[in-house]
Amino acid sequence: MIISVSGIVGSGKTTVASRGARILRNSGLEVSVLRFQSLPCFRLLPSSLNARAKPPDVNPGKGERKVRRANYRQKRLGIWRTGLYVARALAFRAYSVMLPRTRVHILNRYFYDLFTHYRFEGAVERACGRILQAAIPVPDLALLVVAQPATIAARRPRFSSEYLSAVGEGYRRLPQRFPELVEFSTDPTGDVEDLEVLILTAIRDLGQLTPNSLHSRREPGRGAQP
To which H or E segment does residue 165 belong? Predict the structure, then answer.
């Protein structure tokens, strides 16, 4: 079984992944928590978020904090980059078949997160979005970790306001595109009991699914159009 955990920086993805793993282990299940971008199936492919494409940090004056992702702007999704993402999706599909079926695999981040960094403003870009959306497999449980903008800003004061605003709006739109996403709030602290019920219910309902089921769970036409 595969569980993905997505969310903006400061939303609590790592905390939710760790708590989810503890909940499952306490229930007697074997669990592995994996950083999605570091999976071995991606090693031969360029990074999906190229460091050169990131806006530079602003070096402040003496005694001030560095501002991260200053002057941030969302990018355009072109044909070449779409091809790269589709290749990564295919690589992950092959990799997921080899994951031990007796374990629950929790992925910190997933393909969903990259959609928040693009504008989807033209016909070509929207078509690329649809192609990519069709290519990525659906996890058995897809969690979207959310928190109020003020909470995110307080947790990550070093990130620029333009970055938090633009990407935050992208995350708010994600469920329109991917209705399988289940939101879990960490604002202000989240409710561990709610998380336990959510995860254990998914295990009960989907416990017979294997990573192979990722290849067939997305229904044709499912999700909003970019």
Answer: helix 161-177
